[in-house]
Amino acid sequence: xxxxxxxxxxxxxxxxxxxxxxxxxxxxxxxxxxxxxxxxxxxxxxxxxxxxxxxxxxxxxxxxxxxxxxxxxxxxxxxxxxxxxxxxxxxxxxxxxxxxxxxxxxxxxxxxxxxxxxxxxxxxxxxxxxxxxxxxxxxxxxxxxxxxxxxxxxxxxxxxxxxxxxxxxxxxxxxxxxxxxxxxxxxxxxxxxxxxxxxxxxxxxxxxxxxxxxxxxxxxxxxxxxxxxxxxxxxxxxxxxxxxxxxx
Length: 248
Prior knowledge:
There is one protein chain. This protein is mostly helical. The chain is about 65% helix and about 5% strand. It is globular and about 55 Å long. It starts with a strand and ends in a 9-residue tail after the last helix.
């Protein structure tokens, strides 16, 4: 990692399509209709994350679903939400401390965060009747492994970024960022991918396609446009992968 004062060339605002998508999502989730900004974005996110365990448990009680798949889903999605809260307490992401309008916060929940709760409803309500490609015990093992690995990757990457940038600003090229440039996004994708695999329904695929392409991909493209201002960026980009080693 190099200090920010060494950055002198290569600055780019990013491609027009990504800037347009970022402007749209920012307006909908932060500035919608203007007016007072009584909430922080983190409060909306944390409400959904902290409430997931209790919401899924409530669904299991309402639908009297005590199947192994429902319990595994509760453990994975519910525990991930609680882990997120611990992460936010220990090293909060500055990006989520921005104040948002009431309608912006509601939009964030309705168009992204709330749909994650629909995943669990599909499975627990019996709307989804998954026929997994592998025996149940093997599929559960795969989903649990993917979710746990994703949690570790996301938390470790966010922690490295948070604590490193407190000491020295600049391009982070070691640790979790040594081989891939966006390990935190990969971790999130592994987590929600594992949940979609457990539900085994077409709707989570549509939701994740929207989030991954409309939000994650845009953020990664614009982040790389910003990092291109560092002189060491070209060499770092050449020896690393965008998201998945040896694939992408």
